[in-house]
Amino acid sequence: MDRAAPRPVRGGLTLALLAFTQLIVALDYNIVYVALPDIGSALGFTSQSVQWVVSAYAVGLGGLLLFGGRAVDRIGARRMFMLGLLLYGIASLAGGLATGTGTLVAARAVQGAGGALLTPATLALIYGGFAEGPERNRALGAWGMAGSGGLAAGSLLGGVLTNYLGWESVFFVNVPLALGAAAAAVWLLPADPPRSAGWGGFDLPGAVLATAGSVLLVFGLASGPETGWGSVQAAGSLAAGAALMALLLVVESRTRDPLMPLRLLRTRSLATTMAVIAVFQGTLGAGYYVFTSYLQPVLGYSSLEAGLAFLPLTLTCMFTAVKVVPVMLGRWGVRTTLVTGMFGAAAGIAVLVAGMSVNGSFWALIPGSLIWGVFGGIAFVALFAAAGSGIAPEEQGVASGVATSAKEIGGAMGLAAFVAIATAGATASTPTDVLDGLQTAGWVAAAVTAVGGLLALVLKRPAPAPEGPAPVSEEITSSLEGVKP
Asked: pLDDT over 70 for what percent of the chain?
């Protein structure tokens, strides 16, 4: 296998393409939330089963990320990028045309599988095509702008589309976007290095174990709120998933060319990044849940009004990621930037929760939305800067896959936990009772986010800039030392 580093990607247009595809993935994670009532009524979902429209996407995405990351390294970032987009477009078309619950859930799972190929491919193209330092910081800023903005804008766009065009439009909108991006990739992205025939060196046993274990973990976490945490579906899936992941570690330790090199997990900085990103995504999902549940059941907003309420958060996320974070990373390094982002995001969630009341208004939520948007955008970009810094080119895909897997599993765990907190002890569905549960969940989310900021302090400080270029071997072995100022 030729392990040559990928050729540098071409400038502005290529970066725009990579950011745009991240926008598609992030957007689709949230876009269906406000359409769920209409989807449930149209296709016959129950109030308990409709959550699988969201959870099936998480299962496909979280379950295949490790496989997708290694496929990027072994088969090629450009190939996986295009395959991921094609899967996305085809599955989106099937989702919009679905006339039954099974078809839609299956389409969402395939969308997640497309995202599991697309996300590590996009990050590998950024890490391999932009030199570490200011150039990569700017690229990650644009990528982060699209990701953080897409997460927030998903609810906004979902509300607008559902209100005017129907629930099917939240799926159909992805078809031209994904297929157009795949066509642009043919022209903009550099060809992958030639690969040898067959699957030699791909570690198929590791791929099977990683995929099955991750799918079972995410499936169990998604099943818990509906079936109960002691049920066979939830507890059994979690136990089986944990057993397969433990077996994966044994297999990988004895494999000459593993799917997931264990030396990466022994790196203090990557292990810390995984912990912080799991916390960040878990509390991010909790924050969105609290925000949307407050706007609709408590304040009585329509789906369109609830979507528009995300506009301040969306705009601040996007502006901060592209204009502020690259400067912070260049001057302060990854650790200080990430710590600042996590503590600021915790403050933003707390201010947002403090502005909630039964007779409240949108304007009382503006300060918290702005603070959360600014610092959430900072933390999002800094986390992925930490995940890819110092990693060898042939392992960029798996490093981003590992980090994104931690993000998805953390998100599933966090959402399940905070929904349980918000609904614990509720004996009625009056606005006051709903608000009490939401505020409790919000305060806990703010505290956990601050704990994530403390964890980020474990990251190593940036090393002083060398007088001359560092040897290649030194760059590879000093994994994740941080972006040098």
From this structure: 84
The rounded distance, in Å, linking the Cα atoms of 248 and 67 is 12
Residue 392, classed as helix, strand or coil, is coil
User: Please, what is the Cα angle at 60 between 55 and 66, to 5 degrees?
Assistant: 130
The pLDDT assigned to 236 comes to 93
CA–CA separation, 370 vs 133, rounded Å? 28
- Count of CA atoms in the C-beta half-sphere (13 A) of 14: 20
Burial class from Cβ neighbours inside 10 Å (0-12, 13-18, 19+) for residue 4 reads: exposed
**Measured CA distances, 387 to 120, 173, 431 (Å):** 11, 31, 42
> CA triplet 413, 418, 424: central angle to 5 degrees?
130
- Indicate the SS3 state at residue 259: coil
- Mean pLDDT computed over 47-51: 67
pLDDT at position 470 is 38
Give one DSSP letter per residue of 431-480, joined into a string: HHHHHHHHHHHHHHHHHHHHHHHHHHTTSPPPPPPPSSPPPHHHHHHSTT
- Please say whether the dihedral angle defined by the alpha carbons of residues 310, 381, 140 and 336, taken in this order, is positive or negative: positive
Global pTM reads 0.72
Which alpha helices (DSSP H) does 166-233 contain, by range? 169-172, 174-188, 204-227
Which tokens sit at 254?
A: 């004895």
Distances (CA, A) of 138 to 3, 31, 124, 331: 26, 27, 15, 13
Residue 47: CB atoms within 10 Å: 10
Cα–Cα distance measured from residue 367 to residue 350, given in angstroms and rounded to the nearest whole number? 10
Check: CB of residue 380 under 8 Å from CB of residue 148.
yes
Tokens found for residue 258:
């593993």
Centroid of chain to Cα 380: 9
Closest to 347 measured CA to CA, from 368, 332, 378: 368
Pull the structure tokens for residue 86: 């094609």
Q: How confident is the model at residue 80 (pLDDT cuts 50, 70, 90)?
A: very high
**CA atoms of 56 and 82, how far apart (whole Å):** 22
Q: What is the DSSP letter of 192?
A: P
DSSP letter string, 129-163: HS-TTHHHHHHHHHHHHHHHHHHHHHHHHHHHHHH
329-375 pLDDT, tens per residue? 888 888 999 999 999 999 999 999 999 999 888 899 999 999 999 99
pLDDT at position 416: 74
What element of type H or E holds 66? helix 52-75
Q: Do residues 386 and 325 make contact, with C-beta atoms less than 8 angstroms apart? A: no
Rg, Å, the chain Cα set: 21
CA dist., res. 188 & res. 387, Å (int): 25
148, 317 in Cβ contact below 8 A?
yes
Contacts of 243 (CB under 8 A, 6+ apart): 213
